Each structure stands twice: as C-alpha cells, then as structure tokens.
Amino acid sequence: MNRKIVLPAFLLCLTLVLCSCDDKSQESAKPTAPRPSAAADSAPPNFPPDSGPPPSIDAERTMQSIKDVVKFGARPIGSANHAKLEKYILDHLQGDDVESDSFIADTPAGKLPVRNIIAKYPGTKDGIIVIAGHYDTNYPLRDTAYVGANDGGSTTAILLEFARQLRGKKRDGYSVWLVWTDAEEAIDHWTATDSVYGTRHLAQKWQADGTAKKIKAFILEDMIGDADLDVVKDGNSTPWLEQALYEAATRLADQSHFFTYSNTISDDHVPFRDIGVPVVDIIDIDYGYQNVFHHSPQDTVDKLSTNSLQIIGSTTLEMVRMLDQMEPLPPK
Ligand SMILES: [Zn+2]
To answer: Fewer CB in a 10 Å sphere around the end CB: N or C, the chain?
Structure first.
C-alpha cells in the first residue's frame, strides 16, 4: 500500500490544516465525522438472509503465525529471509493444491525474483472467490530492524489461517483461492510501475488464460492486525463489494470498526479492478497516531491484537458465505 510521507512536525501541522491526505493516490481527506451509513451510498444489493452460526477463526493461532514470521526479520523480495518465508508458507500448505506464479521483475534495483503463491480450495459452484494479501515486506527498510508485523505479517498469517479453515472441508459455494501476493511493496518509491509487481503480473496472466472471467470477487487484506482497528472505506473498491463487507461486519456486530473514514487506496486490488474483476480492499491505514507505525521499525507484534484478527477473519468468511448464496451476483 502506498505510504505517508514523513514530514517535520511544523510541516505536518501545515499539511493537516490544508488537507489530511498524504499523497496523490490517497485522494480524499479523512472526514471530520464518522460515516455510519457510508456503505449505503447506492442501493444495496439483495443480500441473502443472515443465517447459521457466525463464522470464526482461531485468532490465537493466527497471532502465533505472525510471531513466527517476524522472527525471520525483514522479508523483502530477493532476500534470504524472503526465501525462508516462502518455505514457511509452503510447509504450512502441504497436501493442498498449491501453485506458484514466479517471474523476474524489472525494478529500480534491477532484476528481482517475484513469486505469488496460490492455494486452491474447490467448491460446488462455478466461479472463484480470491482472498489475497501480500507477504513481502518493505524494501527500502530491508537493512533495518523492520519486521512488518502488521504490514506483511498479518496478511501472511491470516491467509494461512483461512487455509486451515478451508482445508479438508466440502465447500458448498464458489471455489476459494488464497493468494499470497509478492512484491506489493515499492522498491524505490510508490508509483504505478514501482509497486504491486506480483498482482500486475498475475492479473495479466489470469486475463490471458481466461481465469479472470471466473473470478466473482477479489478480496484483498492488508494491515489488518492493528489493535485499534478501523478499516477504511476505499474509493478504488467496487461499491457493491464494499456494501457486502459492511453488511458482513454488521451481522457480526463489528461495524464500528469499518468505514469511519474514507480514502482512495492504491494496493494489490487495483490491477484486478483494471481488468474488470469486482474488488474490495480490507485495509486499516490509520496505524498508530498519524499512521506513524506504518513502514516503521515500530510495526511490531505488540501493536496488534487477536480481537482485530478475529474481526477481520470472521467478517471475511461471513462475506464469502454471503457471496456463495447471492444469485445472481451484482453486475461488475
Ligand atoms: Zn507496506
């Protein structure tokens, strides 16, 4: 996800007076008041009835996975720590239907290896729901104490937890594909061509081979472990999927953690949006006061909570359950 510019305090104050947005791809400012009905900007789709026990994940186990991966240290693409993390992910997917989308990216730092990891869990319905999140960590901070507990760690871990939830169960719904995306982070600084290397490659590949047409929804998770959880309403996400996200959170009585502010987020969902796939980015970009923990060595496990992981995990699974039952899905 694109980042805040670090400014001296006096400039920061000036910036806040002028506009609370921090760069050109986060175009809208934080509103002064919460927007509890933010999901209802347009007529809501016909959601299926709220039925059955609410889904949940093992949030303690998810937190343990975050602790495991931060022990590797910084995990930028091309590093030995990244290779260790690839092995860690694959070791935890043994027996599943797993494939890699590997390639060499041209970056400002030269040619670097990129590997998206995809695990597939078949369903009974024709179509695919993708749940994705990046596992690489910030490149410019590669030689610091940075560990990316939230930014990289939380998504690596929650996808592994989703794999545990999906494994060995018959899915009465769409196939679910989990994607650990790679090279989400910029190498130098965030631009359209220096960011989301992995998903730009995967979206092109899946458009060329016909897979993209089968994807009913691309659900992205990013920075989802913050103990002070507030998921942004994102202008780059598909409106009806944002509505589905808010509806799922409401069913779990967790809606107060969603959409109290709006922004426009450049992230791994944009390449899929650009090829016509419905997308939603579940991201909290208000990480610490003024987002100070983001891309900072202070992005450590103690800033996260199992409660937040549970909220995101159960909301995501509830949204998948709703999508499974929506017939037909809204037009793209
Ligand atoms: Zn990041």
So the answer is: C
